[in-house]
Amino acid sequence: MINHIQRIVLWVSFLGLASCVDEINIALEESNQAMVIEAWIGNNPEDTYVKVYQTSAYISGVLNPNFVPVPVKSVVIEQGVGEDILFSQIEQNIFRQSTSFDPVSGRDYRLVVETADGEIYESSWEKMPPLVQIEDVVGQAFEKQVLIATGQSQFIQTRTFADIQAVISDPGEGELGYLIESSGITELYTTANIDNCACTCYENVPNIFAGMNVVSNEPFQGRSFGLSLGEISLSTLGRFLVNTKVKTVNKSSYDYLNQIDEQQRNSGSIFDPAPSRIKGNITKRGDENQLVLGSFFLFQESSYEKLLFRTQIRSEALELNHSIEPLPPVEASCLEVYLDATTIRPPAFRQ
Amino acid sequence: MKLFFTFLTCMTFIFYGSAQVKSDENEFARQLESYFQLTGQRILVLEKDLSGLNSAEGLVLKNLPSALTENTDYAFFTFREKYVVIYPKFLRDKYYDRADSLEKHTEKAIYEVKGRIRDNEMKTFIPGGLFSIPQLELAALTDEKGEFSVQVPEGTYIGYFSSMGKQTEQKIIKVYRDQELDVTLFESVSELDLVTVTDRAIDANVMSTLPGATRIPMEELKLLPPLLGEVDVVKSMLLLPGVSTVGEGASGFNVRGGGVDQNLILMDGAPVFNPSHMFGFFSIFNQDAINDATLYKGDIPAQYGGRLSSVLDIKTQSGDTEDWYLNGGIGFLSSRLGINGPITDKTQIMATVRAAYPTWILRRIPNTGINESATNFQDANLRLDHRINDRNSLLISAYTSSDYFRFGADTAYSWQTNLASLKWKAYWGDFFGSETNLSYSSYRYSVFGEASPLEFKLRSSIDFLGIQQQFEWSGEKLEGLQFGFQVNSYQMGMGDLIPNSEESLIEPVAIQDERGIESAVYFQVPWKLSDKLQGQLGLRYSRFFALGERQVYEYEEGVPMELESIRDTTFYQSGELIKSYGGFEPRLTVRYAISEDFSVKGSINRSLQYLHLLTNNFASAPVDLWKLSDGFIGPQEAWQYALGFYKNMNQNKIETSVEVYYKDMPSIVEYLDGAQLFLNPTLETDLVMGSGYAYGSEFLIKKNSGKINGWVSYTFSRTLRKVETQLGDAVNQGEYFPANWDQPHDITVVASWQPVRRISFNATFNYRTGRPITLPSGIYDIGGNIVIDYQERNQARIPDYHRLDMGMTYYFYQRKNSNYKSSISLSFYNLYARRNAFSWFFQPSPEQGIPKSYRLAVIGTVVPSLTYNFSIR
Predict the structure, then answer these.
(1) Which of A291-305, B108-122, B676-690 has the lowest mean pLDDT?
(2) Which of A256, B135, B483, B750 could crosslink B95 through cysteines, CB 3.0-4.6 Å?
(3) Which helix (H) or strand (E) holds B96?
């Protein structure tokens, strides 16, 4: 009884210390449309494109925003040295390079877009950043408290996770930013009472980093450093395939991306800056006050893939309190439990 | 005598002593109140005299004093048609004898009778206590130090000492030389006690010459519902019209359209740079250490300067001169302990400590974000009073505090405040005195990043050292003249980033410090053309010197200031002048008394501010950066014009006022969109000078006396700002935009009900318009991330705010002269658990669509608190 009263007193008395966050539905459908130009130019043709469109209205949580394409006459990348690089329209509002393009580190480039109405939009001259190769991907175990919810009750337990890092060597050529994208495939085991069970599944993990992963090289210029790619749970037995891309961007692009990151992490508290418009490096020729959103990014990208063995990571940190979740029982296939997975073993797991 | 009674407040001496008298108490009290309602005259009578009076039952009300005393041994006399004092006839006979004697012996000597009235329960001196000698029709109120002084002809008299809620004491006073009296009053236990003596004139709101000034003694603050178990000075100030906050959790407060940095907050003369513990849930002012708080929001006396909007002057209390006292309070979240008493007959000490410890609660909340969080604070006050001799005294006051807050696993914040002041008061003659105040204030904060391998410590600091010398003249001509000078030195640590572990990869970054000296000379004098028309005139001249050692960038002309446009650098040696600003700050108030209970007041004042708080957050935080004016950022400037109408009704039981103001701010500091304020060596590129204005009207109706009292206030106010730039981006396209704290409608209701002496109930209700925010204008995509394009600054508002708090205090029974007294307070903050929005924010949804919108309510539920308060003599 005393414990019960204590619990009530604790909860009632101090629940107020915990701030509360509610989802609300805000729809601002009558907002003004603004011009957006997003241009990524770099050493990976797949990721090199220019998009020209108008903003969509803000409606909280809507899955498919309706961006209105802007008719465009030409999209050109001007080089400080050399010929212009022409872009042609591939989809309704997406342009890709018409000719092959080998970016030169340290060279200046500028984007020029002319719309069908004859309005010209141009970026400032930007410098191509250096290419930085990923040397390795490693995992290091650590402990973290997690909230376990079962039925009506919730409780907190300590679990182990692996902090996945990409090892790079910063070239020490001034301030840069690193934009990191990390995905993976996790191996999932189940158990069954039959011999021919398809008990191992493989499930894509689209992003192992919560949110945008952009890092300044300011703390480690010219040094070897481990860029955090995200974390994976060590409470399961299967392996994990990490697939990561690291884009090097120049300082102004980093600042721009960092503002997006801050915007996405804003939690409305007194420590968060009041939101404001993010201004890029593109203006309308002859009318610099006209609002143009988006930015012109130059990048050099390297990628890396590595299969991580959770068992090995755990064995390198035996001082931690590892616990393994029991294997889910199935009738004949792991797909009974992991609905979005596949039983086809990806090549990287066939070692 | 006339002078003394100008301040006399309504008072009734009634006590219960015998069963017979007690049986008639209710009827008697009702008759006195009815007589007051009918005639406007208060009847003052001692409890022990009640049995000798005629029964009140059935008497003709309009002749009540005569009827009560007819054919008894009692008489009465009337003061200025407002007060009727009933007292034994033999005293009156003495008075007449003395009057006859005076006619015959006019050479009779006059002596000074000085004294102090103490509070047995509060262990303090009582401001506004009443000393009277009925037979001379003479009375005086004690000043803010609990002292009074009257000139009395030689003779033997019976003196009366009384105060609100205290048993009146009588003493025989033999005046054959100068006398010094020291009287302690005990709490009255009479349920009929209608004494309503206050520490200010009952009609002060009408007759004082300072518009927009409010002084609240700690006793009044304690009648308000405590938040989290603490009576809070700052929270109480927020209940006054014209004072607001942007939301729960925000540090500081806003006064008449000013930012939180535009309030000068002083504790015993030392400036406070962050008045908040735990993000404003507690203030740094411990209720056991505070004597009173005065807020100047209209006309600011010339002795204060350096801020545009208001002055909150907090005075700590002195230690008791006779006995040692131990007092404190114990609560779930915080506890406090204080001691005060005499060290010698000339020296008293007051010391308090306080600690808050909510972390043990946070750890038990099953939320991983919260249970890894921690917060606590500790603070301590120390005050020493020493009387060197009759003409010189010293006061030493010190304060220290430390706050710690950890949010989640890898970021922690800490901040410390240290204050010290040394005050020397001297009297250089009968009419000339001086006060020298040497003060020190430091504020330091640190942000700790604990994510490996980037462990860092980001720190910033303010060091203030100031001296103020003030002289005051109290002779007949130019009585009340004050003049003096002030010199303040500032050293601002603008931010250092250092690695916080041996393995950390963080490169140290040091932003150069800023130094400056602010000086001022001033005078202020009351003026009086007639009893009806009077006021105050003040003039302050301030000058600020931005000093080296510092490296100052020069930027290309004709282009926006940015890193790329730096063309040269100038290095200023230590103490070398970088830039100087200054100006006159006139202050003028006028009061015209249309009648005894109706006046009109006006004021004009100009203020300059050389110290600026830089924040681009949703609200001011403890880790915001302060900056001095320099070659790029000039002083902020404001002119305030205020006009007020003050009307008291029902014999001053009800106060009403309407105040309107317009504040022109031709120079203010604003930040540009996307400003980087921390660790920015070119901070000037993210700041810009703007202008603004604020206006508003404040309505107040207040009931001062009775078992139910309180006030209702309504404020309409607007505050808008504009930033136009010749070069670079303007804010809101150069148009006016609402300030973060622009909340046009603000209604406050404060009520206190004390049905019997031992229990009181209180409640406050506040409604105000939601504060401005910036909403999305549209969305677009950058590399697969949906980005929000925001509208111009502050073009929308979050929902309106309203909240009800209620509390109750029960005073445990104690006998007169008991050494132990205690009470218990139960309060409920946000009684109906409204989730008032602090902000709206937008975060990506897991489904990768348009970011979802969320409401953050800092306190989204009812918060009860229970505190046991005690006092041991």
Answers:
(1) B108-122
(2) B135
(3) helix B89-104
Task: Give the CATH number, domain containing residue B70.
Answer: 2.60.40.10
Say yes or no to pLDDT of A9 above 50: no
Instruction: Give the mutation candidate from B773, B785, B789 for the A interface (greatest A CB count, under 10 A).
Output: B789
Tell me if A87 sits within 8 A of A51, measured CB to CB: no
Say if residue B41's pLDDT is above 90: no
Residues belonging to chain A: 351
The residue range of the domain holding A88 is: 30-128
pLDDT of residue A2: 41
pLDDT at A6: 45
Q: CA–CA separation, B607 vs B639, rounded Å? A: 7
Q: Is residue A276 part of a domain?
A: no
Tokens of B475: 């002779």
Q: How many residues does chain B have?
A: 873
Rg of chain A over all Cα atoms, to the nearest angstrom: 25
Q: Check whether residue A183 and residue A93 sit in a common domain.
A: no
Q: How far is B773 from chain A (nearest CA, A)?
A: 8
Residues A151 and A226 in one domain: yes
Is B197 domain-assigned? no
* B72/chain A closest Cα distance in angstroms: 60
Decide: A161 and A141 in contact? Cβ < 8 Å: yes
Interchain pair B505, A274: CB under 8 A: no
Q: How far is CA A232 from CA A139, A144, A182, A185, A316, in A?
A: 9, 12, 12, 11, 16
Distances B604 to B254, B462, B526, B587, B668 between C-alpha atoms, Å: 20, 32, 15, 6, 19
B777·A28 Cβ contact <8 A: yes
How many beta-carbon pairs below 8 A join chains A and B?
249
For residues B148 and B140, is the Cβ–Cβ distance under 8 A?
A: yes
The closest CB to that of B332, out of A13, A24, A264, belongs to A13
Is residue B45 scored above 80 in pLDDT?
Answer: no
Residue B370: strand, helix, or coil? helix
> What is the residue whose two structure tokens read 């840069």?
A176
Q: Which residues of A touch B779 (CB under 8 A)?
A: 55-58, 65
A152 band by pLDDT with thresholds 50, 70 and 90: low
Confidence of residue B368 (pLDDT cuts 50, 70, 90): low
On whether residue A221 sits in a domain, the answer given is yes
Rounded CA-CA distance B551/B336 in Å is 46
Q: Are the C-beta atoms of B159 and B181 separated by less than 8 Å?
A: yes
Calculate the average pLDDT of chain B.
84
A80 pLDDT band, cuts 50/70/90, is confident
Q: Which residue of A has its CA nearest to B497?
A: A219
Q: B369: which DSSP letter?
A: H
Domain housing B216: 204-312
For residue A8, pLDDT beyond 50: no
Give the DSSP letter string of B541-556: EEEEEEE-SEEEEEE-
Give ∠ CA B350-B143-B214 in degrees, rounded to 5. 90
Write out the E strands in B774-815: 776-782, 785-790, 796-797, 801-811
Token pair of B299 as six digits: 């006309």
Report, as an integer, the average pLDDT of A112-141: 95
Residues of B in contact with A21 (CB under 8 A): 854-857
- Residue, of B91 and A239, whose pLDDT is higher: A239
How remote is the C-alpha of A196 from its chain's centroid? 39
The residue type of A93 is N
CATH number of the CATH domain containing A61:
2.60.40
Measure in Å the smallest separation between the Cα of B385 and chain A Cα atoms. Answer: 39
The Cα A160–Cα A146 span in angstroms is 10
CA distance B247 to chain A (A): 10
Nearest CA in chain A to B784: A212
Task: To the nearest 10°, report the CA torsion of B829, B833, B834, B836.
Answer: 50
For A294, the closest of B370, B782, B829 (CB atoms) is B782
